[in-house]
Structures are given as structure tokens and as C-alpha cells.
Amino acid sequence: MVVVQASKINLPATSSSLSSSKTPTSLLFDPHSFSLALFHSDSSVSLFPSISFPFSFHQKCLTISPPSSSFTFLLLQKTQQNPNSRVIFIVAGPYKGGSKVLLRFFLHKNDGRKVFEQPKVVSKQKGIDFDDKVGVSIDVSHGLKVMIVGSVNFFALYSLSSSKILIFGVKLVGNDEGGEELAIKLMKCAVIDCLKPVFSMSISFECLVLGEENGVSVWNLRELVKGKKVRRVKNTCLSNGVTRENGGIFNGGSSSSEIVCYGYLDGKIEKKSVSVKQMSGKYRQESAERGACFVVFEQKEVKGLASTKMPFMSMKAISIQPLSSKKFLILNSSGDLSVLHVLNTVVGSNITCHMRPLPHVLKVQKLAVLPDISSRRQTIWISDGYHSVHMMDISSAVNENDKRESEEKPIQVSVSLAIFSSEKIQGMMPTAANSILILGQGSLDAYTIS
Asked: Which of 141, 221, 387, 419 is the most buried (most CB within 10 A)?
């Protein structure tokens, strides 16, 4: 028998004049520090460190003032100087009328207080300025939309108006166990100029995955950030005319974009750069020189379409959730799910990717995953965007480095539970393999399955 325990989390009380402006609209959970972030309709953020259940809003909370437009958690791996892993919360927002992006960093303290504090940020790179009163300003236009995603030691920032993706490396400077003040060293490691919109992003310590129209592009993260020299790479935009040949993926688009890789992790800038010649027309997107590939969705014919000029329906990758460092779950705008396998991320070799659609269960609008590489079966949560959330298990008993096995071995999918809400679901976030937070229109509920 499956037992579901539900508990309502009382949101902070506000006066009637402020209640509409402080309504939570999205949430994010970090499993390493067990911290919860709530984004409000007034673009402020409530950050709850080291939460426990039953959850109470009387717990310590850090209120981050508006404006904020995107936020993420980042895990810093332990080093010899700092032997404990640390979590950083990063908030992005507009600065100076939207002409720049403001980043605010909050470091989770590992001492008994278990709070987030704003550390000093250091960087000697051009276009990055730190002000201890406001935060770090990045010389890239905020415009109408920015998107930020973090993983281990790196995070990516996408600016729609600038058509750029900036990849930053982060590390701690100082030793708090030795009584030194900790600071964050921020390093811009790569810049990707985009000619096409990016609808979603995900980053692991091995891959950067960009959700585009009709598929996803996959970048070898270590290839982008390696070395100490500034590398300028001309690259054909992932565009139309995609074909397959001998297991490779080719593109027929003729437009071009530029990747500027600042691949230094020690903060030093070399004066000279290495120029790589431009490639146009058809080329192998798995080229080791590029360290990237484009993977298309399984196309669907448009029923009742009289014209033969557009035989397929366009689909956008609107959500990308990591299942592991080399496996990602992709949600497209048609409401279908696919599993992306990245089979080879060795620096200097061809990157190989393969994507398989999952059986259609319902038209999915929202997707949430808690990565768990230790389990052969992984739990994902899907929602129709209205009043139901479904718990679904997918098999992961596949060798992630075996191309044949990832292509041929069947993916087993089973829906084990459904949760119905009286309010329209705005967001959901798993806190463990058997528990999830569901955000409605003004309510937050916790569910535990046993």
C-alpha cells in the first residue's frame, strides 16, 4: 500500500495591500544544503537555509530585495585549502536601467548558524565590477530576459537581448577554518554568441545543454573552459537542413556564429589569441575542434497541412533537467519528453549524443527531477500545468558510455502515483526521491510517499 502524507506550509502573512505583490510564483530547492528559495511576484526572493520538515516560515529567512529575474544554486567542490563543499546562491537582475546584469552572491555557512551571507567577490577581468553595496555588475545587456543555471564550480548566464551565453567559473579564496575571510573569485571562462533564441539551459560538470528550436545543442564544458589562452572559434549556427550520416549529426545551415572561449581558470589573461578558421555549409557538429553537437527531436508530421513546404511541426526545448552528468530529460513545447544521452565528453575527442523519446503519458507542461546517479530507476515528476502532478519512474540501467546500449536498450516507464490539487499548479520541486513541494496559487504543500 502506498501512503501519501500531505502537509500545508503556511506562507508568511502579509497585509491585504501587499498580498498580491508578495505571492510566490516559483521555487528552487538545493539538496546539498537543503535550502529553499521562493521567487515572489514583486521580483523579490525569500531564501530559507537548511530547512527541515515539518517546515515553518518562522525558520531563518533571508529576503533578497528586488529586482530579480533569475536565480540558481551552485556547488563548490572541496579543495585542499577548503576541505568542505560549499553552496552558493546566485541571483541575477537588471542594473543601470537594464544596460547591465547585476549578480548577487550568497555563500552558505557551514558553521552552526547555517545561514547565507554575502561574501566579497574578486575578479580582475574587464567587464566585471564588484561593489560591496550592490553586488557584481556584468557588462552585458539584461534587456527583457536573462536566464542563469548553475552546477558544480560553473554557472551559465544567457542574455536574450545580447544574444550571448557567458560561462563563469567560481572558486573560494581564503580559509575560514584558519580564520581568514572567505571571498569568491569569479572568472569568465567562455562566451557564446547566439544567432538563435535559447529557450532553456542546463549545465553539469561535463556538459552545457541549450534548448533550441527542433532540438538541443550539447557543448563539452571542459572543452570550452580548458587552457589559459583566449580562443576565438567560428562556428556555423545550428540551423535548418539537419541530416544524419554514419551515426553523426550534420547541419546544412549557412549562417555563422562566434564562440569566444576565455579558457583560464587561474584568472590570468593571455595577450595573444588562437584563431580557428570559419567553417560554413555542411560540417560535422561532433567535431573535436568544436566540442559540440546538435540533436534533433523525433519529428511529427502536421496533420491536415496542405502545403508541402513545412511538413513538420516546429518544437522548442522548453525545459532541460539533468538526470546525471551525462543524461538529461528534455521537455518540448508539444508536451513530450525525451532522454538525451551524452556518450563521450573526453577533451579533444568527438562528442557523441543520442536522444530517445519517452512514451507519451500526458501533455506535460511542467517537469521536475532530483538527480540520483546511485539508483537504477529514477523518479521524475510531471504536471499538466493545471491541477495534477504525476510521479513517474524511468529505468536508468544503461551504460552511459555505450552508444549501442543507449540506442537499443528499451526505456521502461511507469506512472506510480498521481496527486491532485485544488489550485492551479505554478511550480514543483522534489526534495528527495519520495517527497515533493508543490506550489499553487498562494499555497505551498509538502508531500511524502512511503
From this structure: 221
